[in-house]
Amino acid sequence: MATDKYESVLIRFNGKNYSAWAFHFKIFVKGKDLWGHIDGSKPAPDKDKEKDEHAKWEVKDAQIMAWILGSVDPNIILNLQPFKTAAEMWNYLKKLYSQHNTARRFQLEHELATIQQGSLSISDFYSSFMNLWAEYTDIVYANLPPEGLSSVQLVHETTKKDQFLMKLRSEFESTRSSLMNREPVPSLDVCLNALFREEQRIQFQWLM
């Protein structure tokens, strides 16, 4: 089934986006009711005493291993060959890559601070900006207690909108100013709709 293919619904791990990949992969496996293979709550049955159950467990574990292998870049797959269970693969990746989150967060903060629309369309720039933002917030949110998460997310929604609008080309200045001067300032989705309309208007003018 298509829903059993990890790569069809989630992101690929490239060695730099561990936090985002791990977050999505965990949700995916939990949705299949197989997370116990990773966290140890569903250990392998005794092979000698429960032969049939052990065989079924191995099939499920192999499925998770296939999802891991199917969701990482080819150069990472080679490093996973020595491991015989999904938990071993997961723990190896976690140990090797999660420690780099601080450096990656700093890099993402720099990229978010310097990114500009340049020659990109509104749609392409939005995609580039949101990819950076999503990875950045995945790293930040991973270390927050649940009780404080919603407050930070609320602040980040405003910051995300402001950052995106500030990075636009000068030809969108009038639209940006109009949006920022509204009370309250519209959501990012509403801002995007206004920017798409302005972009179409500008493109139409060039054709005249």
Structure report:
This is Retrotransposon Copia-like N-terminal domain-containing protein. Pfam families: Retrotran_gag_2. It comes from Cinchona calisaya. With 208 residues, the protein is mainly alpha-helical. It folds into 2 domains: 2-99, no CATH class; 115-207, no CATH class. The chain is 68% helix and 0% strand. It has 10 helices and no strands. The mean pLDDT is 89.
Low-confidence stretches: none
Mean pLDDT: 89
Number of domains: 2
Query: Which descriptor suits the 3D outline?
Result: elongated
Query: What's the multimeric state?
Result: single chain
Distance between the termini: 50 Å
Radius of gyration: 22 Å
Total helical elements: 10
Number of strands: 0
Query: How does the helix and strand content classify structurally?
Result: mainly alpha
DSSP strand content = under 5%
Largest sheet: none
Pfam family, one: Retrotran_gag_2
Protein name: Retrotransposon Copia-like N-terminal domain-containing protein
